[in-house]
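PROTEIN DESIGN WORKSHEET
SECTION A - STRUCTURE
LENGTH: 339
TOKENS:
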């Protein structure tokens, strides 16, 4: 059934009611384009081209070029313009302007890639941000933008880029896995629900894959451990917290929760240049839990002092404001597991 509205704009005359009217298809194509629904926009554009010639067909070719520019296929976008327009055409000026935009985008792409190679990630992020504005559905642009956003600690933007990649028409299972992992480990404010939602969408799109449901099960298992940690924290069971996090009993051969968590974290994003343990909000909280528990147990050992400093927690027994620290950690944990 045809959509009767696009966003808040009703389609009072959908093309299906007048299937030979190219103007209606063109109007709807423009509305779809404005909503960045480029696949549906292109379908209507192709109908316009098939049904018409002259002015409205020229408009359709221009819009089709813009669609492929938005997808980052600048080469094909240029080809559409050079094959269907010349300077003497009524739309020659608009075609020339679109060609100029494509030239600028290709130049900026080269600049962004060079910045990435030189590890000038701030420059890469800034330049690729301008590319996103004109080519929001370009896979290579999104991947570059996500990478440089992560390297410059723009974590919210990284998560947005990874989620967008999972929504593209050529998305793969890996795109969903990457977006879900990032949401869980680096942007947990929405709880596990955002990650699990992405994994459900992955299963709907790739019904036979096993990776997405497997990752969902591992996330739920991690959540169970976070629930236990929250309960130990509320009970102020410092010895239980230390034992559960790093497994201190001599007769136990299985690792504690912290090294198990690190194994999952190491799978999340392996190509970044910095220590993901310092960036993951969940991992930082586990570090604080361990160091505050050791503080309350007066475990003032040299190795623990060094470990807590190296992981961003200044460990001074009995020195930190106890209630504020515990309250902050408790709010974070319960916020994640209850969302």
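SECTION B - SEQUENCE
RESIDUE ASSIGNMENT:
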């Amino acid at each position: 059934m045809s959509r009767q509205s696009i966003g808040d704009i009703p389609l009072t005359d959908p093309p299906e009611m007048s299937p030979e009217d190219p103007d209606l298809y063109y109007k709807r194509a423009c509305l779809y384009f404005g909503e960045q629904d480029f696949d549906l926009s292109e379908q209507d554009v192709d109908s316009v081209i098939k049904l018409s010639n002259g002015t409205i067909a020229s408009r359709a070719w221009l819009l089709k070029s813009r669609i492929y520019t938005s997808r980052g296929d600048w080469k094909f976008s240029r080809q559409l313009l050079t094959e269907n327009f010349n300077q003497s055409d009524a739309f020659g000026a608009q075609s020339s302007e679109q060609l100029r935009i494509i030239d600028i985008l290709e130049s900026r792409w080269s600049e962004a890639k060079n910045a990435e190679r030189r590890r000038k990630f701030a420059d890469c992020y800034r330049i690729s941000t301008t590319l996103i504005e004109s080519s929001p559905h370009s896979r290579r642009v999104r991947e570059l933008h996500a990478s440089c956003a992560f390297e410059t600690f723009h974590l919210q933007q990284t998560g947005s880029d990874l989620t967008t990649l999972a929504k593209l028409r050529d998305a793969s299972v890996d795109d969903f896995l990457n977006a879900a992992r990032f949401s869980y480990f680096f942007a947990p404010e929405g709880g596990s629900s955002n990650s699990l939602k992405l994994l459900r969408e992955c299963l709907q799109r790739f019904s036979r894959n096993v990776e997405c449901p497997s990752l969902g099960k591992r996330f739920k298992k991690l959540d169970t451990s976070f629930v236990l940690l929250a309960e130990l924290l509320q009970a102020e069971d410092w010895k239980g917290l230390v034992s559960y996090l790093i497994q201190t009993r001599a007769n136990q051969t299985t690792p504690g929760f912290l090294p198990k968590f690190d194994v999952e974290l190491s799978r999340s994003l392996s190509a970044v240049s910095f220590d993901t343990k310092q960036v993951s909000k969940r991992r930082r909280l586990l570090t604080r839990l361990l160091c505050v528990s050791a503080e309350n147990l007066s475990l003032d050992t040299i190795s623990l002092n060094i470990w807590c400093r190296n992981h961003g927690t200044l460990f001074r027994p009995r020195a930190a404001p106890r209630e504020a620290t515990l309250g902050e950690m408790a709010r974070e944990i319960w916020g994640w597991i209850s969302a």
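SECTION C - NOTES
Residues 225-338 form one domain.
The two ends are 36 Å apart (CA to CA).
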